[in-house]
Amino acid sequence: MKASSPTFLSLFLLLLLLLSPLPSVVALLRAPPRLPSVSAEKLIRELNLFPNQPINIVGDSNRLHAAAPRIVERRFKFPNVIDPRGVSVEELGHHAGYYQIEHSHAARMFYFFFESRNSSEDPVVIWLTGGPGCSSEMALFYENGPFTIANNLSLVWNEYGWDKVSNILYVDQPIGTGFSYSSDRRDIRHDEKGVSDDLYDFLQAFFKEHPHLAKNDFYITGESYAGHYIPALAARVHQGNKAKEGIHVNLKGFAIGNGLTDPAIQYGAYADYAMDMGILTQSEHDRINKVLPVCETAIKLCGTDGTISCVAAYIVCNTIFSSIFARAGNVNYYDIRKKCEGSLCYDFSNVEKFLNQKSVRGALGVGDIEFVSCSTTVYEAMLVDWMRNLEVGIPALLEDGIKLLVYAGEYDLICNWLGNSRWVHAMEWRGQKAFVASPEVPFEVDGAKAGLLTSHGPLSFLKVHDAGHMVPMDQPKASLEMLKRWMEGLLSKSTTDSGTLVSSI
Ligand SMILES: *[C@@H]1O[C@H](CO)[C@@H](O)[C@H](O)[C@H]1NC(C)=O
Ligand SMILES: *[C@@H]1O[C@H](CO)[C@@H](O)[C@H](O)[C@H]1NC(C)=O
């Protein structure tokens, strides 16, 4: 690769950090920068996941046939569903499918589509799990899907599944994740352009397959690293609509749960959040934040389309996170109320056990494709994307009336509410002043305070009580209420009403 001046500058920054004689910076080396491959592996082990492959790149025997239809979808019923009523496959409306990605060499994207338990008129919602490189089936079975997995691997209906109010899609992406695969390594994605183009092409094919759903409202949702995917996909869909590229997708809004969207602001919030929550003392906080100016400069160099500078920023800035973690001991960084036992922070191993059963794989029609719960290769391939700022495309969407909800469980450290609240408030758009001036009102579910809401016009921020990184797992009922009210445009209304009531008493 030809060296450019930003390359030198970022290497210089890195050297500056590593060679700095400041004792404070040297102290940081107690938590030396981790290699990305080590970070990715650690992430997966902490969730008790053991995928057989680092990515789903398959042999030539699985090559695509040019003549095959773009979408192959089947209605299915999971075996082992605890279902005393004996609902038929037709009534269920559960589909599993593969989409042959149009702008790829040989890639197929796997998805689940669950028809709404209420009405086919309900909005269409797409859910994207983060990682980068983790399968959306993580959310399907542990957060907001129609079922949860019991310990004996039976499926139990989820009373608060998001399919109660929406026709919901769970997509395995970027390519190589979950059951999605390719036989050509050139299909591995490295940035949000690759990710959002693939998802846009998928949506076009999906609505072509289900034309009656194209007129429904459409919402993009997800979590964690999807704080990058979601704004990128929203912008891609909006662009496609404006240019009349294909089927009009009735995009009404996008919602980011405990996401990473604006790294410069969010990395600046780590030490503050950790100190507020009693994980760091003031002096530890100050010492760790000495690296912040270097991190911020590195992120600025990365911008929205840097390359090597973005990798340098990842390495520099993540010393902040690893330093906090080195002091926090075995605190679970997805939920600081919890401890990681040994190397285990959560145990999501049942999703692998469940999906690797012969009967389940047969029902889904995945053949001998491996289930890659989280892909280390996809994680590493997206490294250049990590520090890019995805906030920049959002104001234009808000100004065209597309709604954004940013929500965050209050006990998550890794994508904490403080950093999210800060970037949402700092975002410059026509309604910024009014948003910033809006009062914080309680978000109530069943008469109890489930969170704190700030909203104005199309923009809402919700701090969710009693929840960590995975809000729908920790607060299933409140999260379903949140989705429903937000889609109906009632998120702020109900709470504003009770707010005025309280203040007039
Ligand atoms: C499996 O667990 C579920 C939920 O705990 C229970 O309802 C069901 O009866 C169990 N099934 C078997 C076969 O033990
Ligand atoms: C169920 O669907 C109907 C018809 O589309 C809609 O009016 C109603 O609000 C939905 N109910 C819920 C709980 O979402």
TrEMBL record:
SUPFAM superfamilies: alpha/beta-Hydrolases. Its EC number is 3.4.16.-. It is found in: Secreted. Pfam families: Peptidase_S10 (PF00450). Its main location: secreted. One of its GO terms (molecular function) is serine-type carboxypeptidase activity. This is Carboxypeptidase. It comes from Handroanthus impetiginosus.
